[in-house]
Write a structure and sequence with these properties.
Two copies of one chain form a homodimer. Chain A is of the alpha+beta class. Helix content of chain A is about 25%, strand content about 30%. The structure holds a DNA duplex (19 and 19 nucleotides).
DNA sequence: GAGTGGTCTAGACCACTTC
DNA sequence: AAGTGGTCTAGACCACTCC
């Protein structure tokens, strides 16, 4: 029984470890349970701590584990479904909107945003910060860019900043006739400020949802929303969405 | 000029490196250009190779770099927009469908899939493998699960496997009245086989799009599509989508 | 065979949470 | 103060591509 394993396909140690741990999570652990610490686990599997960490990182990416510095590693609950495709054809700030206004100010947007809004690269636009909560946890932050031309009646009549100003901007934008919207999802890594808001480390994987709102033949508003990739499953239908674990390695014939 | 930087927020080296490299990519490199190798870069920045690699991994996650073993690290082109939300209300295999059938067989699906399809956990279902190409490159693989009950006229009349069988299954499913669909997007890591198809390493980040197709009050088909997260931006409108680089750290006041 | 990125090690120290 | 995960180092060897 010396050499039970086959040498032909030497899969990386961390990948094999990931599989072993994944199966252990399925069968021997329950949600919220604390795993042994990394040094113990590494010793138990006979690998260096860095190798073990590579396996844990994979599992965290897949939403199976949650790690917190100074605390430990716990078994993560299933990802929460977060509706993104609902409120179709409604402006941000509409009554059923899931977002909470946080702050607003006039700012010069990043160059790519200015290009999409067709504003000059030095022009300021209304920038509204919002956040979104699900099951009592902050799951996303958003930056909403609205050119001054989209809300002409708002010229300096309201508070200069703060949540009140954010609400005023959102109130104004409802008056425009919304002609359509389009949306894109891509992988990103959390900027330092988003990471802080989302209680993650800088560089954590996030899902970036970019939404363009069209009115009067132009892009009248642009939203860049940053969702925690570890805890969120973005749903686009009206139903809550399927919970499919795509991880399993086996595929029975 | 000794201590220009402030010590108060000692950001990790790899994060700072990422920022420096990111700016260098913007200003001094063009798409497709080859970067110096990791050992040289690490020496140039005075860090260990592992630390440099942490920074490169971030940039690769963000779609800025492309690394290939044995070849080198190159500057990645902007992500390609891949339409996911079009073909709304059409079965897979409809004429305008972007997917290429690859193979098909009767298989026992993973437990979570069986649950969504409401089949017994030991029942086989039609499993169609398809792939999707964009700009000459394979960007996604798909597993499409169709319970035998959804295609009653297909009982063993066609080829036992292969692309021809896949086409036969897809042809049959068109006959059902499609009542609706819903969709979810989440982050995953590539399984060994998907990784091979997508020309990535096992564990590479992927965007998993799960689509349920409803007919006759049941889930009549379920698609699990795996997109390369580094090269793809999933778009959901009818227009090609915005190309927003969310990476920039600065946010001018 | 030379050069690349990918894996792995064994250690050290740091930042953070909890007691 | 003790214990956790996060960062970093300096090396080694492996798998792969290309010449």
């Amino acid at each position: 029984m010396g050499t039970t394993q086959l040498e032909s396909v030497p899969e990386p140690k961390y990948w094999h470890l990931r599989t072993v741990l994944s199966e252990a999570l399925d069968s021997e652990f329950s949600v919220g349970e604390i795993l042994p610490n990394e040094r113990d686990l590494a010793a138990r599997f006979g690998v260096a701590r860095a190798t073990l960490r590579q396996a844990l990182e994979q599992l965290e990416l897949e939403g199976r584990l949650q790690r917190r510095r100074g605390v430990g590693t716990t078994v993560a609950p299933p990802r929460v479904g977060v509706a993104v495709g609902t409120e179709q054809h409604a402006w941000p700030g509409a009554p059923e909107d899931a977002w909470q206004p946080v702050d607003s100010a006039m700012e010069v947007p990043p160059a790519a945003v200015a290009a999409a809004l067709e504003t000059g690269s030095d022009d300021t636009v209304h920038t509204v910060r919002r956040s979104r909560t699900s099951h009592g946890q902050l799951v996303a932050t958003e930056l909403l860019y609205i050119p001054a031309a989209s809300v002409p009646d708002l010229t300096a009549i309201d508070a200069p900043s703060g949540a009140a100003r954010a609400r005023a901007v959102l109130r104004e934008v409802q008056h425009l006739p919304l002609e359509g919207q389009d949306r894109a999802v891509e992988l990103g890594s959390a900027r330092a400020d988003d990471a802080r808001d989302l209680d993650r480390l800088p560089g954590s994987p996030v899902l970036v949802v970019t939404t363009r709102f069209f009115a009067q033949g132009r892009t009248a508003a642009l939203s860049v929303a940053t969702y925690r990739a570890d805890t969120c499953r973005l749903t686009f239908g009206d139903s809550p969405g399927v919970e499919i674990h795509h991880t399993p390695e086996q595929r029975a014939s």
